[in-house]
Amino acid sequence: MQLYFDRIDSFEDIGDVLRYALAVFNEQGIVRVSYHITPAFAELTSQTTAVFADGFSAEWLECYDREDFRSSDPIPRRVLDHGAMMTWQEAEMAAPNSPANKTYFKAMREHGLIHGFGIPLFGPVGRDGFASLDFGEPVADVPPDNIGTVRSVAQAGHQRICVLLGRSKKAPQLSEREIEVLTWAARGKSMADIAAILDISPDTAKTYAKRIYAKLEVSDRVGAVVKAMRMGIVRI
């Protein structure tokens, strides 16, 4: 396990942390994962929360991008309040559900999101986060060592991301167009999509992206989106 921690602590880029954690999760049998990181003390399902997701259908991600739908998700808050791992079913039964909550859980089942679990991720100065993971089978059927590795790597990755974010106290100055590009990237749009939306060429969109990465001191769009949302540069 220490080898995982040493590797995570060696990264200087948020995107590298996320990619490495995802690779470990996949090795352990995880088929889908989402990671929520918020501004300090903000709600885990707010529109200011950066959500990194892998393995979920495009239809589900489109639903989750809607503010009304995301705000009806009670799982992150219930897991964080519980302070320990909870399956999605346990989270559903942990408290009375509003009509919106019931609709949310129904939608999960309709999209095949049944066997996953959530884990709270604790960070410095209120920078708590949340990860939702799924082995594609009941947690009771998964070897305990696999679950333990996934939980430990998720917590270590979150803490490293908090450290990297904490190093940048002052937000860099982005142009209005760069903020537009970054905002659409945070909404999950590709560079081709962004070019069409902003009526610019794909090459111009890529140039803006490269400038954004340089100013934010990251290497890719994942790191740029997470860092920009944590610094309050963009809102979705």
Summarize the structure.
With 236 residues, the chain is an alpha+beta fold.
Report on this model:
With 236 residues, this protein is of the alpha+beta class. It folds into two domains: 165 residues, 2-Layer Sandwich (Beta-Lactamase), CATH 3.30.450; 55 residues, Winged helix-like DNA-binding domain superfamily/Winged helix DNA-binding domain (Arc Repressor Mutant, subunit A, Orthogonal Bundle). It has twelve helices and five strands. Strands 2-1-5-4-3 form a five-stranded antiparallel beta sheet, with helices on both faces. A hairpin with a 7-residue loop joins strand 4 and strand 5. Helix 9 packs across helix 12, helix 10 packs across helix 11 and helix 11 crosses helix 12. The longest helix is centred in the middle third of the chain and has 23 residues. The radius of gyration is 18 Å and the shape is globular. The model has no long low-confidence stretch (mean pLDDT 89).
